[in-house]
Structure to design on (196 residues):
């Protein structure tokens, strides 16, 4: 409800000064409402308990901080991230899931704010297309996806080296992200990659 209200009010706030309540393209909502949307969604994502297939796999913090350390050669980024989350949240159970939710939602919402022409509609699509609930099931996958989503501008701006660096960073969270490097070539083969 709070997310809906924040998105709805940000829609009205983008139309201040216009005679109708229709959406105005290329007009950003006030940053206060972006933070409000972020906090509402992050609160739901961070404080879920038992929701999601992978929840209990990541819930016990000591599984990541004691057993894996830096020996997890396949996902060193996630291993370091989980150790940082454990340290920042005081080692409480659920610190990895809370940290992953906070970071993923922040990256998604603020990238949407930066790149979307219609912020309220984009946030509604973010929620309704299942991206938000998908984060509950694939913690590492959606951290990697959020990193790739933040770097999408490098595809549009035709900067392959920067896109490669983003892909390499994302692959430290989930190794299958390395396949996303080829998306650069697919999108640039299409005439207008902005709308892919």
């Amino acid at each position: 409800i709070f997310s809906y209200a924040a998105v709805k009010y940000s829609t009205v706030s983008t139309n201040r000064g216009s005679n109708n309540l229709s959406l105005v393209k290329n007009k950003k909502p006030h940053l206060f409402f972006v933070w409000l949307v972020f906090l509402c969604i992050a609160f739901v994502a961070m404080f879920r308990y038992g929701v999601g297939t992978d929840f209990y796999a990541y819930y016990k913090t000591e599984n990541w901080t004691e057993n894996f350390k830096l020996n997890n050669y396949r996902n060193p980024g996630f291993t370091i991230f989980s150790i940082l989350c454990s340290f920042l949240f005081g080692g409480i159970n659920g610190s990895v899931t809370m940290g992953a939710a906070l970071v993923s939602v922040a990256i998604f919402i603020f990238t949407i704010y930066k790149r979307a022409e219609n912020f309220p509609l984009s946030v509604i699509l973010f929620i309704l297309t299942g991206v938000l609930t998908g984060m509950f099931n694939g913690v590492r996958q959606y951290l990697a996806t959020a990193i790739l989503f933040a770097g999408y501008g490098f595809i549009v701006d035709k900067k392959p080296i920067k896109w490669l660096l983003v892909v390499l960073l994302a692959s430290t969270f989930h190794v299958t992200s390395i396949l996303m490097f080829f998306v650069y070539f697919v999108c640039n083969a299409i005439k207008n990659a902005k709308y892919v």
